[in-house]
Amino acid sequence: MEPGQLVTLDGERVFLRRPHNGDAQVRLALGHDLEIYRMFGGSREELSEMTSHGAAMWVESLAEHPYAWVIEHESLIGEIRLDHVNLSDRRASLAIGIYDPALLGHGLGSEAIKLVLAYAFDVLGLHRIGLRVLAYNQRAIRAYEKCGFVIEGRERDAAFVDGAFHDDIMMGVLEQEFQVLNRC
């Protein structure tokens, strides 16, 4: 599949689509929230203001990615990607970011994840989706578990954030686990 040809995915409350140039202004307005930045593994001292150039580069990077969507809920709220897609081994890794702190914990990320997992398993024919999450990001871990991911391992002291080492949690979901979960 060529970049730009990725299908849009419609949920009940979120809409996943390819990025476009108008997204840069919305991304700029969302800026960088410290709590969200830390959940991605960024340290306080590294945090800087979002710039017009940074927002434009964010859009460009997503537009060039073959499996990246903008998450919309009334307007742009984040991104979701399938990285390292390996069609031979039928696996990929998942990355998601909700950039509006007021919308965290409302199930919008979980809905976006379920849409992408359904696409990955039903359309791309993948068998396994994995991810990594910082151990202190308990809200994300709960959301991933709600979507069918299970903890598969822990990489000790894998990230250095705010002057301390933190563990990474490896999680994964298999096609049949997701299908069983979503038949309910």
Structure write-up:
The chain is α+β, with helices and mostly antiparallel strands and 184 residues long. The protein has one domain: Aminopeptidase. The chain is built from six helices and eight strands, in the order ββαααβββαβαββα. The protein has helices at residues 23-30, 34-39, 52-64, 108-123, 138-146, 175-181, and strands at 9-10, 15-17, 68-73, 75-86, 91-98, 128-134, 150-161, 164-174. Strands 1-2-3-4-5-6-8-7 form an eight-stranded mixed sheet, sandwiched between helices. Helix 1 crosses helix 3. The longest helix is centred in the middle third of the chain and has 16 residues, at 108-123. It starts with 8 loop residues before the first strand and ends with a helix. The model has no long low-confidence stretch (mean pLDDT 88).
Q: What is the name of the CATH superfamily?
A: Gcn5-related N-acetyltransferase (GNAT)
Instruction: Please state roughly what percent of the residues sit in beta strands, choosing from under 5%, 5-15%, 15-25%, 25-35%, 35-45% or over 45%.
Output: 25-35%
The CATH architecture term is 3-Layer(aba) Sandwich
The average pLDDT value, as a whole number, equals 88
Number of strands: 8
Tally of discrete structural domains: 1
* Shape summary: globular
What oligomerization state is this entry in?
Answer: single chain
Q: What is the CATH third-level topology name? A: Aminopeptidase
Low-confidence stretches: none
Strand order in the sheet with the most strands: 1-2-3-4-5-6-8-7
Q: Helical region count?
A: 6
Which structural class best describes the helix and strand composition? alpha+beta
